[in-house]
Amino acid sequence: MVLLLSRTYFPNGTNSKLECEGKFICNNIELPWKKNETKVSCIPEGKYFIRKRYSNKFKWHLEVMNVENRKFILIHPANNALLELNGCIAPVTQFSGPGLGLMSRKAFYKLKDLVYKVLDRGEEVSLIVQSDSQKGMTKK
User: Fold this and answer.
1) Which end of the chain is more exposed for a tag (fewer CB within 10 A), N or C?
2) Rounded mean pLDDT of 83-107?
3) φ/ψ of residue 113, rounded to 5
4) Which branch of life, at top level (predicted)?
5) How distant, in Å, are the alpha carbons of 7, 72, 96, 108, 139 from that of 64?
6) What is the percent of the chain where pLDDT is above 70?
7) Burial class (CB in 10 A: 0-12, 13-18, 19+), 19
8) Are the beta carbons of 38 and 28 closer than 8 angstroms?
9) 75 DSSP 8-state letter
10) Which helix H or strand E contains 106, and what residues bound it?
11) Nearest of 28, 53, 29 to residue 115 by alpha carbon
């Protein structure tokens, strides 16, 4: 399965939509682009693989693998990128501003259920992160 995350960059956060085979899954919020600096930047555009992960804090969630110079890039619920994320990706039901969203848990469980079904069949899940060129917004 290939997930396509198309970003729009803003100074205070990054908003994106996540699709699979042209079908919308959810919106996402991330930190702004700050040259891949640990804990203050979203991850670079590129192709990654996703795996299941468990922690006491987030229980079962998702991890984005092999991000250059980064570790523990997770996909987990959050509604405010600047306050709740350290480089991770948070699914949200709707945006409330740059790097801000609403009803994150609802969007997260929808995404997690979809991805876990594929992983449980022994199939790979890849994530392609790109700029949303239709919006004309690019990272600086």
Assistant:
1) C
2) 98
3) -60, -40
4) Bacteria
5) 16, 7, 25, 14, 21
6) 94
7) middle
8) no
9) E
10) helix 104-120
11) 53
Residue 3 has a CB neighbour count (10 Å cut-off) of 21
* Cα dihedral across residues 119, 121, 124, 129: positive or negative: negative
Averaged confidence pLDDT in the chain = 94
The residue type at 56: N
Q: Which of 94, 67, 91, 84 shows the shortest CA–CA distance to 31?
A: 84
pTM across the whole model: 0.93
pLDDT of residue 61: 97
Q: Output phi, psi for 112, to 5 deg.
A: -60, -45
Q: What is the pLDDT of residue 136?
A: 41
